[in-house]
Write a structure and sequence with these properties.
Elements: E1 8-14, E2 20-26, H1 37-49, H2 61-83, E3 91-92, E4 95-98, H3 100-109, E5 112-118, H4 125-138, E6 144-150, H5 155-160, E7 168-173, E8 181-182, H6 189-199, H7 210-214, E9 219-224, H8 231-242, E10 247-251, H9 255-259, E11 266-271, E12 274-280, H10 287-298, E13 302-304, H11 310-314, E14 320-326, H12 333-344, E15 352-357, H13 364-369, E16 379-384, E17 389-392, H14 400-411, E18 417-418, E19 434-436, H15 441-445, E20 451-457, H16 462-465, H17 468-477, E21 484-490, E22 506-510, E23 519-520, H18 527-573
Parallel strand pairs: 4-6, 5-6, 9-10, 13-15, 14-15, 19-21, 20-21
Antiparallel strand pairs: 1-2, 3-4, 5-7, 7-8, 9-11, 11-12, 14-16, 16-17, 17-18, 20-22, 22-23
């Protein structure tokens, strides 16, 4: 054993953040047993690996043993902590990255925890992540912490917390896991900061010099109140909390009463110095009423559907929408839009008027959802977003009065909904002209043993109605030929799941073939020309049908031969 050097002692202390700390001190008062310098080296390294500070020298063997035991205990404790999710929480740009194992611990640890539950490929994911990063940078050192949970990985946690889909933002207070506060989806970091600030404040915090707000390019919501202790003032401030992207202000300036000719407490919507709309406050005014008022008048009377307005439209508290499907490049667009716009002014707060440009490729999903073809434009549909029932505008006159009458009928519950199919009329197949509906259209049209000539019409369209007598005459012309069916269908009341090019009325011939062939008639609309067209196409189809029958006969014979071959092979095996 080499010559001993100075004596040491090891002191075990609890350091900051619950970490164990080991220190070796010189000149220990305790009796020591000298150890070699090699043993001192090993002890020193052990001490260093445990996070301690050592001074090279002679160690008490008892303290060295204790050091070794505590080091092992520390490693085991760390492993156990990691197993319980108690290790260091990973962060990215100051945002905690939570998972099921550590969610509850962080919930208890932070008095306020704002959590973004996201899926990496969700539409708003990147924008909200950027907003979170900006807010986290501003909130460094604050009491509130921001965190994210990837629900595509943490499915059990999402199910436990009833997260139905991204994006979801929730603020958890004082570790309360069951009663979080829903956060509006933010546009940017300022949205988050404003929401948090308003939550912690009161209406008095919005007191401001309205003359500055009047010069703003954005819409400003001004509460003009004589006193701030009314219940409706609290409702006004609650609306401000839920709409963090809107500029709110409160004033008690009496000069505004005379400026805008107002005699009672009101909420004003101002754009620069222009009064957009005023809402008179009553003791019964609620937060929800104010939110509807503000969000509706934030938008133009008619809002064009596009990537920037889609969220605003779909999250609007107004659940009844009037949709104008129109081609903006058409010659009559200005006149149609003018009538739609003028009608919209009469139904603010009741109906949300939306224009969809059918000539915009990115609107394809909207057309597909509402089963609208580009060739059918212009048309108007009313939709109730609570049950998704749609109502078809029963006119091709797009002036304001006709549109308003349709909207009035809808709001009174008298409008006829557009269904996937009307009911099949009793005796529909006994009349010369068969009246089809969505449920039996394809069965009649694609009957391989009959030729069907069908008129697709709009009952309110004059050109469609003018063809009714001609269609009756056509049916009489073929009444002795059972292989021919003359029919018609209301295209406004039934979904037409066929490839239909062009506008209505449309004349389509379906030959008696197994192949689902559709022929569009664009010739002269006279009885003689129609009969000639049907006979010509039937003659052509007859040749194709002979080939189809021959192909089917060969196929059946080939299948029979194959079955016979398999049967013989089975006998041979037996």
């Amino acid at each position: 054993m080499s010559k001993p050097s100075q004596r040491f002692r090891v002191l075990h202390q609890r350091g900051p953040h619950g970490k164990d700390k080991y220190n070796i001190y010189e000149n220990s008062p305790s009796p020591v047993q000298p150890i070699s310098s090699e043993e001192a080296d090993r002890a020193e390294r052990a001490c260093s690996s445990a996070g301690g500070v050592s001074v090279r020298g002679e160690l008490n063997m008892g303290w060295c043993v204790l050091l070794t035991v505590l080091t092992v205990w520390r490693v085991c404790a760390c492993v156990s902590a990691d197993a319980r999710g108690e290790g260091a929480i990973p962060e990215k740009d100051g945002i905690l990255q939570l998972r099921k194992a550590n969610f509850n611990r962080e919930l208890r640890k932070h008095k306020q925890l704002l959590v973004h539950f996201y899926a990496p490929l969700s539409g708003d994911g990147h924008r909200i992540t950027a907003a979170f990063q900006g807010a986290a940078a501003e909130l460094q050192g604050a009491e509130i912490r921001l965190a994210t949970v990837d629900i595509s990985k943490e499915k059990d946690l999402a199910k436990e917390l009833n997260i139905t889909g991204p994006p979801v933002l929730r603020l958890y207070l004082s570790g309360d896991k069951r009663n979080p506060v829903a956060c509006p989806v933010p546009k940017n970091a300022a949205s988050i900061l404003t929401w948090l600030k308003r939550r912690a404040g009161s209406a008095a915090d919005l007191l401001t010099d309205v003359s500055q707000s009047e010069s703003s390019d954005e819409l400003v919501v001004v509460g003009l109140f004589k006193e701030l202790d009314h219940d409706y003032v609290k409702a006004f401030y609650a609306a401000a909390v839920d709409l963090p992207d809107v500029h709110f202000a409160v004033t008690q300036n009496k000069d505004l009463l005379s400026k805008y000719d107002i005699t009672q407490d009101v909420v004003l919507l101002l754009n620069k110095t222009k009064l957009v709309e005023a809402y008179k406050m009553t003791p019964k005014t609620s937060k929800e009423e104010l939110i509807v008022f503000i969000t509706v008048y934030q938008m133009e009377p008619v809002t064009e559907y596009d990537g920037q307005t889609a969220t605003q439209i779909l999250t609007s508290p107004v659940l009844h929408h009037a949709l104008l499907f129109v081609n903006k490049s058409s010659g009559d667009f200005k006149a149609i839009h003018s009538g739609f716009h003028n009608a919209a002014k009469s139904f603010r707060l009741k109906l949300l008027f939306v224009m969809v440009n059918v000539d915009e490729p990115r609107n394809g999903r909207m057309l597909e959802y509402f089963r609208v073809r580009e060739s059918e434009a212009p048309l108007i549909r009313l939709v109730n977003l609570t049950d998704h029932v749609t109502y078809h505008f029963p006119s091709d006159n797009f002036n304001a009065e006709t549109i308003k009458e349709f909207c009035k009928t809808y709001m009174e519950g008298k409008a006829k909904p557009k269904m996937q199919s009307e009911a099949i009329e009793e005796g529909w197949d006994q009349q010369p002209v068969k009246q089809l509906v969505g449920m039996n259209l394809e069965k009649v049209a694609f009957n391989p043993d009959k030729t069907a000539f069908i008129l697709f019409y709009l009952p309110y369209n004059q050109e469609s109605r003018s063809l009714f007598p001609l269609w009756e005459d056509l049916a009489k012309a073929f009444q002795d030929r059972e292989e021919v069916v003359i029919a018609r269908i209301d295209a406004s009341a039934n979904d037409i799941n066929l490839s239909m090019e062009g506008s209505y009325p449309a004349l389509r011939l379906f030959p008696a073939l197994y192949a689902e062939r559709v022929i569009n008639y664009t010739g002269r609309q006279t009885l003689k020309d129609l009969v000639k067209f049907v006979d010509r196409e039937m003659e052509r189809a007859k040749k194709d049908r002979e080939k189809e029958d021959e192909d089917r006969r060969k196929y059946v014979e080939a299948m029979k031969a194959e079955d016979a071959k398999k049967a013989n092979e089975t006998k041979d095996e037996l």
